[in-house]
Amino acid sequence: MQLESLYQEIILDHYRNPHHSGLREPYDAQVHHVNPTCGDEVTLRVKLAGDTVADVSYDSLGCSISQASTSVLTDLVIGKPVDRAMSVSEEFLRLMQSRGRTEPDEDVLEDAVAFVGVAKYPARIKCALLAWMAWRDATAQALVAAGTNNLRETT
Amino acid sequence: MTASPQLRAPAYDVERVRGDFPLLARTVRGGRPLVYLDSGATSQKPRQVLDAEREFYERHNAAVHRGAHLLAEEATDAYEDARAKVAGFVGAAPDEIVFTKNATEGINLVAYALSNAATAGEATRRFRVGPGDEVVVTEMEHHANLLPWQQLCQRTGATLRWFELTNDGRLDLSNLDTLINDRTRVVAFVQQSNILGTVNPVQTLVRRAREVGALVLLDSCQSVPHSSVDVHELDADFMVFSGHKMCGPTGIGVLWGRPELLETMPPFLTGGSMIETVHMEASTFAPAPQRFEAGTPMVAQAVGLAAAVDYLDEVGMDVVAAHERDLTAYTLDAFEEVDGVRVIGPTDMVDRGGAVSFAVQGIHPHDVGQVLDDLGIAVRVGHHCAWPVCRRYAVAATTRASFYLYNTQEEIDTLVAGVRHAQRFFG
After folding, report:
1. Most CB within 10 Å of its CB: which of A24, A68, B179, B396?
2. Catalytic residues of B
3. Do A2 and B30 count as a contact with CB atoms less than 8 A apart?
4. Which of B277, B292, B313 is at the close of a domain?
């Protein structure tokens, strides 16, 4: 049965006990992303501290893949410098677009390697990417806001 | 001694029907037999339809309505014969049938014709819609019968209103006489819901629309393939349905319109094939249905659809309807025995068709669908292009099993076992 290769135990664990869930203050940017094919949605907040991802909080509605992916995302990016967190997200994106043909880099992706099976199901890739795209969007907005503030302070 | 067989009505031979559908014989994930329960999205095609399309391309292919050669003549005959065949299937005359690329285009054709009427001269006055006018739909519409009307209202300044739904998945008609009123210009609604399975009371709505002089458009995508439909019995002004949901090819839909309306309604798409005379300054249009069929039409698809109609006629639409009714009742009974499964839509067989949407407690429909897929069962998951319905029943999405003439009780047993398996897997 191929089901276990898709729903690896790590994914089911994160799904049943999601990390860092709930929306928290303070935050620099908040976004709302939806998956229009199934109506799944996530509201996600990012708080930066200088160049570091200080917090990612969220409220989401979706399948096990999207819920687990959101949980894994927060584990992987919170506490990391923004540029390193961005490269993790790019690695995850690459894994999702690989159709399951590449060997994921466990040093970079940690628990997220469990999503290798998802890449074989084109219909589910969007589920796995929903929170990651939301996080990239929110982080970009937070950086723009920070840049604008810095500009204001220096002028 | 058993009862003599000739005294009983011949049983419906579903296995014989299945034999006509080559795709149903294939295997899927891990070599499992396919259990196709997604005919509400699109039906599979019998060999007779595939053969008809192939034969058209191999023997008669040419552009229709032009050219003086034999092939052009044969292709035109094939196309117009298909129109007559499809017309007969719903009790209409051939000139009342417009071929479109799909049902969505058919609805857009009418919605755009109404806004085009603003600048199309006095003869099209009847179709004008503007500020102060109202368009009425329902909360259970497929997006295809919602967005064109939303957009029409935005373009013209008219107001969109809608019937809400009851808890058991039916239209709430308690405000029928106020919602459809003297300001109402169009009432557009689905004959059978693609997500809930509900069969709507067409007569009640049409009667009220007639009292106020509103046009009625019926979305019959989920009824024409599954039961005997007669446009004169329904008494609407327009009706749309799609070819690919009734054993026909993709790329063809049907708009039926009352002849006196089609005669004066302004066109939606313009270009070749739909003209009478053309000058650099201005042009005049061909009579209906050609006026609504700009460009080279989908001839092979029309031929395929005609073959689908022949196929369904031979089985008999009453037989199809009865078979699906048995399957639906069987499914509703079976789901009642499964803890944690909630049917979204009518749970009895009164005015109900063969689409069964359900929610499995604690398991997202995508995950239900994935487990079923692993067992070879094809269902639809998501909001089924009826997002407001999901919102109304407070579910992000549903899992939907939808049936057709080739489905069996054994397949429903497999579905129910699959749902139980999903509950164990995620439990």
Report:
1. A68
2. 385
3. yes
4. B313
State residue B9's pLDDT score: 58
Contacts of B364 in chain A (CB under 8 A): 62-64
Residue window 91-150, chain A: list those with CB within 8 Å of chain B: 121, 124, 127
Position B82 scores a pLDDT of 98
Partners of B278 in the β-ladder: B283
Shared-domain flag, residues B198 and B89: yes
What pLDDT was estimated at residue B10? 67
User: pTM of the full predicted structure?
Assistant: 0.93
Domain identity same for B133 and B184: yes
- DSSP for B140-199 reads T--GGGTHHHHHHHHHH--EEEEE-B-TTSSB--TTHHHHS-TTEEEEEEESB-TTT-BB
B211-238: pLDDT as tens digits: 999 999 999 999 999 999 999 999 999 9
Predicted local confidence at residue A150, as pLDDT: 67
pLDDT in tens, B31-51: 999 999 999 999 999 999 999
Q: Which token pair is B73?
A: 């003549």
Complex ipTM value: 0.90
Per the prediction, chain B carries an average pLDDT of 96
If you count residue pairs, one on A and one on B, with CB atoms under 8 Å apart, how many are there? 49
Total count of domains within chain B:
2
Q: What distance in Å separates residue A87's CA from the closest CA in chain B?
A: 29
> Does residue B4 belong to any structural domain of this protein?
no
Contact residues for B169 (Cβ-Cβ < 8 A; gap 6+): B193, B196, B197, B198, B344, B345, B346, B393
Nearest C-alpha in B relative to A11: B426
Tokens 């709507």 correspond to what residue? Answer: B200
Partner A contacted by B371 (CB < 8 A): yes
pLDDT in the model for residue A146: 86
Helix (H, G, I), strand (E, B) or coil at A55: strand
Task: Return the pLDDT at A152.
Answer: 63
Q: Find the residue in B nearest to A39 (Cα).
A: B396
Torsion, Cα of B59, B62, B67, B69 (10° steps): -10
Is B362 part of the contact surface with chain A (CB cutoff 8 Å)? no
Q: Phi-psi region for residue B316, left (φ > 0), alpha (ψ -120 to 50) or beta?
A: left
Regarding whether B275 and B203 lie in a shared domain, the answer is yes
Using a CB–CB cutoff of 8 Å, tell me whether B131 touches chain A: no
CB contact (8 A) between residue B367 and residue A124: no
B289, pLDDT greater than 80: yes
B364:A63 CB<8 A: yes
How near does any CA of chain A get to the CA of B383, in Å? Answer: 6
